[in-house]
Amino acid sequence: MLYKRPLVALTLALAAAWSAHASAGELVVSAAASLTNAFKEVAQGFEKAHAGTKVILNFGASDVLLQQIVKGAPADVFASADQKAMDKAVEEKAVKPASRVDFAANQIVLIVPADSKANITALKDLERAEVKRIAYGNPASVPVGRYTQAALQAAGLWDAVQAKSVLAQNVRQSLDYVARGEVDAGFVFATDAAIMPGKVKIAVRVPSQTPVTYPIALTTREAAAKEAESFVAYVLSPAGQAILSRYGFQKP
Amino acid sequence: MSDPVWVPLLLSLKVAGWATLLAAIAGTAAAYGLSRWRWPGRDLLDAILTLPLVLPPTVLGYYLLVLLGRRGIIGETLAGWGIELVFTWQGAVIAASVVAFPLVFKSARAAFENVDGQLENAARVLGVGEAGVFFRVTLPLAARGIAAGVLLAFARALGEFGATLMIAGNLPGRTQTLSVAIYEAVQAGDDATANMLVLVTSVTCVVVLLAAGKLVPIGAGQRNGGGR
Questions:
Q1: How far apart are the C-alpha atoms of A75 and A32, rounded to whole Å?
Q2: Which end of chain B is more exposed for a tag (fewer CB within 10 A), N or C?
Q3: What is the pTM of this model?
């Protein structure tokens, strides 16, 4: 009977698929875009060590992830690429302040396309007329943009660079713009530049005004609090730290 | 109205206006060509020209980025002439016209195919040249259908987001259209600006729809036809 009515069968199948998504033992981790490659491996390692728990990863600009959590997205762990996004999370009561801990450190670098002929070797080279477009994350929502802004302001170059800015939605978009040669230079984390060694090269290691440290915290969602706690413990454990260091992250 | 609202609104109208113009000309020309000349591969071309309607905007954005980027097949040639499209408002126009094109194309093709061939032949018998037949008989008869497509195209171009973001980026004052500005305001948690922007967008769309209703009254065609 059912098979004679494909529309009914399809509706039932869709309904079943709908209800299947929220199952037990699932843990949602919202992590900064720069953690994409490293956290995929961290999640695999965690799943191997904790059979039965599935980690669902959600990557994006830290502030975007924060907005999602504040507006009720079901995330259990929040890993941010700077302290400011985590400060906001604490302010908005989106995370448990006591669970907050720094788990990694990074460095800001200025990258250029691998075949660049602009010969950029210092930040002040960005003022030159032949450097037309510079990509970095939007400081309003992307941590790497805030680090960039602070460093350029300290160097007295912010106005000159801002006039040439191409704002990216997250750090990986800046990386992609540079790798495609659509911009002349871009600011990313050292760990991002390391992903595309054939396409981009580091021109300048940028001294940061504030230490580039990554905080992680448990959200106020209780659904998977136990699993979330053990995930954070795994990130801080020697096994988790080894994975992060393999991707170029330093200890905080 | 404040700058964070006014600037993206004007930019959106400028981009959508240009995109609609391009889509209207190209869409009408392609529709006329496909409705008049029969040749193998016509159906395939029709499918390809309709593709932007069904493809995800991110796919279109990627195609455009690969074709028009500094290292793209077309982009490299254009760069040689000093023309750059990526991260410019002209790039946003290209993205919007590509997504709006099928709406004009589909409506215009249906309109051209509904034109009675006997009327065109009558004009020819009376000694009107082919160009005259097109501009004085075929086009006026198909005008209502084409206009409906053009209005839809304008609405679609005004709301274009995905492909625009990929090719034109998010440069405040230069390529940040209304929909991109809303996306950014929401991402940054700036709800006040987001509220203002969605309100302006909604009002603009209502105005466009009202204007569309005035320009192309629904049912007017039937009334004219019935009065013969």
A1: 13
A2: C
A3: 0.81
